[in-house]
From TrEMBL, chains A, B:
CDD domains: NUDIX_NadM_like. Coiled coil: none annotated. This is NrtR DNA-binding winged helix domain-containing protein. PANTHER family: ADP-RIBOSE PYROPHOSPHATASE, SLR1690 PROTEIN. InterPro entries: NUDIX_hydrolase-like_dom_sf, WH-like_DNA-bd_sf, WH_DNA-bd_sf, WHD_NrtR. It comes from the Bacteria. Residues 165-225 form the NrtR DNA-binding winged helix domain.
Length: 243, 243
């Protein structure tokens, strides 16, 4: 942990990942203050240090606490309720961890998406972080559940306006995986046929000459997202995009 | 100004308005420290007080400094460069205004849109604030020009995805006014015929049985935006909106 710190501002980072079936968020274990305490989890976060801007602070914090580096981060929302640090346990933990006694911390949350592949898994396991199912957020400290839900809200709205899904999927994916992702994030069941019909109209979805291997069901065809074709179409549309 | 204050976090509010021809931003005069100093302008802003969250702080600050109240505000971006308060004048002004000596303030900017009508004009004039043309930002203090440009960026992207234009226009408007607004915000010239053709296809743009009065040119027809028709169409589209 870098010193000196600013006792009133922190960063907390919401990293979402997708493992093919379930939407996950990256958490770390909060150090217990005594043996009897329940194990709690938190978002990777820290107080900002004096010489760093928030973006740098968020990147460094994420790397220090989870091993993840050089990933795209964007500001999500600032949480500033004057009572957001109110329980004795939370205050004690802050005093123990940062050596400061504070009544109020304003936190700037950041948002990120990663593909959970083997390399990322290895990094985060070594970094002592773990991927928690977004549907099973238990024992999450502070107001971090609220922060995760804010991130989920942004992810939902982003999914419906931009091709952000392909940042979460592997490079080659099946239509079923894409549908699973939409279902997991939007929290709805989608009709298989309608989904296929809709999605296969997209000219920037490229069918590959390759199928799943070693699966118990009929092997599905792989697809790839053509970002260049997508951008080209966007440029055409943008010439005069009103709303 | 409410005390006590938090010496490291402030709010700054970017309020955009449109007067029918030009895009404006609401500024206040920065109190001069001596008679010889150049007059400088700044965004309405202040340190946050201990008992308020940021939203409350932003609303109270805007009302105290400009008279505007109960308007929709949303978080824009957090500016946190460790050197954003670097000039001696800036430091002296902060010391004089807030009675604190600080090397670093992180500011959370807010974003808002209003219709500049007579009532708003009266309020802001009484509040000692003024509407500055976005194309003519001179003598703006601190990094407030950068904050305004960030707001403009959000406004541009919002204009191309949502019917935000109608929050800036009077209730009844002409197609020319709508076009002026798009030109002012996007910073481009738009072909009159193409614009009319495109915009008149929108089913939620209602032609009124009323024309401009007392104008030197041929009086143009007024239109109104039908927010209900728009929302209905959006709901239909959203049933399964992918991207």
């Amino acid at each position: 942990m870098q010193a000196p710190i600013n006792p009133s501002i922190s960063v907390d980072i919401v990293v979402f990942g997708f493992d093919g079936t379930r939407l996950k968020v990256l958490l770390i274990e909060r150090q217990k203050l005594n043996e009897k305490a329940t194990t709690e989890y938190k978002l990777p976060g820290s107080m900002i240090s004096e010489k760093e801007d928030l973006d740098t602070s968020a990147h460094n914090t994420l790397q220090n606490l989870t091993g993840l580096k050089n990933i795209y981060l964007e500001q999500l929302y600032v949480f500033s309720n004057p009572n957001r640090i109110s329980s004795d346990e939370d205050k004690q933990w802050i005093e123990h961890t940062y050596g400061i006694s504070t009544n109020r911390i304003v936190t700037v949350s950041y948002f990120s998406l990663v593909k959970i592949n083997l390399s990322i898994l290895k990094t985060t396991i070594q970094g002592m972080a773990f991927w928690c199912d977004v549907q099973e957020l238990k024992h999450v400290s502070f107001d971090h559940k609220e922060i995760i839900l804010k991130g989920l809200e942004r992810l939902k709205s982003r999914m419906q306006t931009t091709p952000v899904a392909f940042e979460l999927l592997p490079k080659k994916f099946t239509i079923k995986q894409l549908q699973n992702l939409y279902e997991a994030i939007l929290g709805i069941d989608i009709d298989n046929r309608n989904f296929r019909k809709k999605i296969l109209k997209y000219p920037y979805l490229i069918q590959l000459n390759e199928r799943e291997a070693k699966v118990s069901h009929k092997p599905a065809i792989f697809y790839q997202f053509d970002i260049h074709a997508y951008r080209q179409e966007q440029r055409k549309l943008k010439k005069l995009k009103i709303f």
